[in-house]
Amino acid sequence: MCSMAVSIDRTVGVGGVTVGLIGTGIVVLWPDKRWLGWVFIALGFLIAVLAIVWTLAVYYTRRELEADQKKPAWIREAELINAPITNTNNPIFAPVFAPSFNQSQAQTQEQSVTPTPAIPQTAESEIECTDCYFGEAHLSGSNRLSNYSDGIPIGESGGGCNVAQAKFYLKPIPGSEPSMELRTRLIFYDATGSHPIRRVSDGVWRETVNFIHMPLSTGDTRTLVVAVEAPNVGFGTYEYAERHIGRRRFNREGIFTHILSPKIEPLSGDDLTVQVFLTGKSAGDVTLNQEFWFRLSRPKLEITQISSPRGIQTDMKTQF
Asked: Which listed residue, 22, 26, 56, 59, has the most CB atoms within 10 A of its CB?
């Protein structure tokens, strides 16, 4: 189309100049035919005006085409799909005397293009506990845990402890939610699992910085602190809590005025049963509710995943 537009512009321009020169020659050679000369001159000006109008139309049409080509492919496809099926949206640039089968073919092609329907979320999400174990860690003065392999911050007070922790893996199930935010709740029982000792509203993940809700995508694994243990103290809870730092703190996650400062509460007994609730939310909707049971023992530190002592999963709204 571009080459055709250029040839038409050139032809119109040359024709206008030719007509103007012929009119000027007639006026000079035959003064008594001045009216004929003026007719040619007027015709030349008319052709020049038409050439200018044509040039501007071609210029703005090219700009629109170039702007449309710069759009991403998915936007152009969406505009083609949502456009009404009329001759004005026919993508074939053909003269008005073109055979009608071109237009019907283009309309058939537009009608055959249909948007791909979204895949509904039909499958339930599921989390698997892949491992549970005790590990050594450094407990700071503000109850922050850090691995000895990562090094202890300079000037950090505190001491060593043992950490009972469990790893949870979000299975990549087709049709399930691809990501969610996890919130935890723990209930500690005696060795029989029948008498509750303490409830923890929010547990702490080893990967978290300053959040209660842990983001989790399919295929990800996160490590939850089930309990802590000190040789001369016994088991203790590890609960989410914050401490005001008196100033704003900047990091990659945002701006904070509080830092994570977990709370530790002592637990009586050397043999405990722990019930861990995991609740997942996506876009404000609950997409996952699961519970896991563990047994803790000391002085020989052991953590074992067990089935529910009650034989079935308990109500997520259990209160005591």
From this structure: 26
